[in-house]
Amino acid sequence: MKKLSDLLPGLRGGGTHRFGPTATPKPLTAGLVLLAFLLAPAALGGYGSGLVALYLPLVLLALSADLLWGLNGVVSFGHAAFFTAGAYLAALIVGGPGDSAAGTLSYLQATNVGAGPGDVWRGVFEALAAVRILGVSVLALVLPAVVVGLFGLVLGLVLFRLPSPEVYVPLMTLGLGVIMTTSLVGVSFLGASNGLSNIPSFVADTWLTRVAGDGMSKYYFNLLFLVVAYGVYWWFRGSSWGRRWLGSGDSPLRLDALGYRANLTRSLGFGASAALAGFAGALYVGSIGFVAPAQAAVGQSAMVLIWVAVGRPGSFFGPLVGVLTIQISSFFLSGVLKNSWQLVLGVILILVVVLMTRAAEIRAFVRRTVRRAERPPVERVASASE
Amino acid sequence: MSIVLQVLFQGLGIGSVLLLGALGLMIIYGVMGIVNLAHGEFVMVGAYASVVVSTVGMSWLSIPAAVLVAGALGLLVDVVVVRYFYNNPVASMLGTFGIGMVLQSVVLLVFGPNLQRSEQPITASVPIGFGQSFSVWRLVLIGVAVVTTIGLGLVLARTKYGLTVRLVTADRQVASTLGIRSKRTNRWTFALGCALAGFGGALAAPLANVSPTMGVTYLANSFLVVVLARLGDVRSTALWSAALGVGLAGVAAVSNDVVATIIIWVAALAIVAVRRTELSAVRV
After folding, report:
1. Do A17 and B91 touch (CB under 8 A)?
2. Choosing among B34, B88, B97, which should be mutated to test the A contact, i.e. which has the most A CBs within 10 A?
3. B63-88, pLDDT tens digit by residue?
4. In three state form, how does the secondary structure of chain A look?
5. Which residues of B touch A183 (CB under 8 A)?
6. Are the Cβ atoms of B276 and A161 closer than 8 angstroms?
7. Dihedral of CA B23/B26/B27/B32: which sign?
8. Residue closest to B204 by CA, chosen among B62, B83, B58
9. Which of A29, A56, B46, B174 lies in the 20 to 30 Å Cα band around B77?
10. Mutate which of B94, B222, B228 to test chain A, going by most A C-beta atoms within 10 A?
């Protein structure tokens, strides 16, 4: 039976704890941001571009988490696990001879003497990597998103059937993160705790790298997907699907009453979010060249939530701002602060969440202050009445 | 037969640590609507407290010290931060995870990343039949967990505090209408839960690797117990802890730890999905 609190969003956990989504920015603002990103390599140089190129897939990861938290009120502690799963898949596909993915395949061969499954797997991965568009192995980008997305969809279908998914989803994805890390450490042919390394860049043998160099080619390649993702996100926020997604988080019962299936919507959204996280992992492994089990840890998923929190959950450019702020300050500060950097991040997370619980009061306070500021001075009112 | 006994005892050993964690999580969630993701860190703090006290040479004090330190820390954390998260599960998860990060890095700064070793107070082992023996400390651990559970069950069933806890868990608004000061109940419940976690940490310290990051595994498994057991039901929490512990040890005996955690997670997900129970309702 539905509880009374489901009918009154104010009493439910779902409706009140969020900042709520902000307005989508004007095309001019978005265009200026895009222009800044297009021109940034001129200021950053090859090395700097290569460094920032690593942050761009992380923005996609933050965006996938924000879709859930900012727009639907569900928090996942397993997005780093989805990300890492995508990274491993992509690494296996594009890993050519001479790197550790090849070691994986020779291990598979060694365990199956003769023309066993090892040969089959090598053949399969090589065939997958051979599908190229403009020199880029597209399946290494597509398959991680599809596989991780389907897994997310199935998990979502189970979790969102439950009566309080806001509680169940974080708890079960927390377990997923723990499992992912421990099991990857235990699999010796995936490099155990060292993971897979020397993964070639997606754009390694394309004209882009020959023209722009390694760092800038990765930057523009990653930026392309970031722009596409943000374009889709732009459309999504204005579309009926976007409103349906918001409604399924705010009040599932009302959405059901309107004839949409809230649980199905939420499961599909969870799957899409997982797919984006898996895709981000694939893009990331192509940029940084290695993947390790530690990236799947719950602490990393919490890092994703900190990015979202800093950028303000539900705001359009929030994931971008959050990732760049935290990652750039971590680049400069983590060397100085060492172990206390995690302390700072923990405090930031606590502060943002405390502010979030007070969002309604803060908004009311801001509104009062603005109204007071807008009230015209007394003399002018007096002179106008004359 | 001998392997069955071994698995059974090992599983009950794992289960009793899970039980102490799960009981704390359960009452905190039931009473306060807070999902305490820093619970693993309170287990860790308890373990460190017991290690520190026993290296000073007062190993008989290690368990009370751990309970006291974890409980006092819980009280402090509640007063400073957790009160903002009352009855807001999503915010509480994020906020308490932040608290966990802070506790972890403070311990890391003070003690360093190295594993701490704690001496087993009792090193003897007893035969349990079929040529197998079992360490006395594990038996003590199981016994203590059982006694604590019965004690907590009695507190919840017979004392005035227990009545308050059950009432607030069942219906918070009715409780406050009846003049129960829910903030005060919250505060002491959080401290009690954290003290239980510290207790578990002190008991587990001689058997586990004590490190700043030890909390997360306890946390994930304890939450599986909370999700599977009926909320507020001490008996079912105890049974599910034992079942989960024996299940983990059993699968690990036939294959390995990794497969065990995966199978247990999938099984828990399946059970939860089939039952579809709301995380509420009390029974003691």
Report:
1. yes
2. B97
3. 889 999 999 999 999 999 998 888 78
4. CCCHHHHCCCCCHHHHCCCCCCCCCCHHHHHHHHHHHHHHHHHHHHHHHHHHHHHHHHHHHHHHHHHHHHHHCCCCCCHHHHHHHHHHHHHHHHCCCCCHHHHHHHHHHHHCCCCCHHHHHHHHHHHHHHCEECCEECHHHHHHHHHHHHHHHHHHHHHCCCCCHHHHHHHHHHHHHHHHHHHHHHCHHHCHHHCECCCCCCCCCCHHHHHHHHHHHHHHHHHHHHHHHHHHHHHHHHCHHHHHHHHHHHCHHHHHHCCCCHHHHHHHHHHHHHHHHHHHHHHHHHHHCCECHHHHCHHHHHHHHHHHHHCCCCCCCHHHHHHHHHHHHHHHHHHHHCCHHHHHHHHHHHHHHHHHHCHHHHHHHHHHHHHHHHCCCHHHHHHHHC
5. 258, 261-262
6. yes
7. positive
8. B62
9. B174
10. B94
Residue with tokens 């994930």: B220
Instruction: Please name the residue that has the structure tokens 């026993």.
Output: B54
Q: Kindly list the domain boundaries of chain A, sorted by start residue.
A: 4-375
Q: CA B4, B6, B8 angle in degrees (round to 5)?
A: 65
State which of A163-172, B8-17, B143-152, B268-277 shows the largest mean pLDDT: B143-152
pLDDT the model gives residue A87: 92
Q: Tell me if chain B has a CB within 8 Å of the CB of A302.
A: yes
Range with top average pLDDT, A235-244, A275-284, B45-54: A275-284
Q: Transcribe B221-240 into DSSP letters.
A: HHHHHHHHSPTT-HHHHHHH
pLDDT(B20) > 80: yes
CATH topology of domain B2-275: ABC transporter involved in vitamin B12 uptake, BtuC (1.10.3470)
- Nearest partner of A358 among A73, A19, A9, judged by Cα: A19
Query: Do A296 and A80 meet the contact criterion of CB atoms below 8 Å apart?
Result: yes
Chain mean pLDDT for chain B = 84
| Residue matched to tokens 């009120």 | A73
Q: Which residues of A touch B37 (CB under 8 A)?
A: 174
Domain boundaries, chain B: 2-275
A26-39 pLDDT, tens digit per residue, is 888 888 989 988 88
Q: Do the chains contact at B109 and A178, CB–CB below 8 Å? A: no
Burial category of A33 from C-beta neighbours within 10 Å (exposed 0-12, middle 13-18, buried 19 and up): middle
Cα(A154)–Cα(B274) distance, integer angstroms? 15
Sole residue written with tokens 């002491």: B188
User: Residue B259 is encoded by which pair of tokens?
Assistant: 């497969």
The contacts of residue B160 (CB under 8 Å, 6+ apart) are: none
Better-predicted residue by pLDDT, B253 or A18: B253
Confidence of residue A104 (pLDDT cuts 50, 70, 90): low
Q: What are phi and psi of A191, to 5 degrees?
A: 85, 10
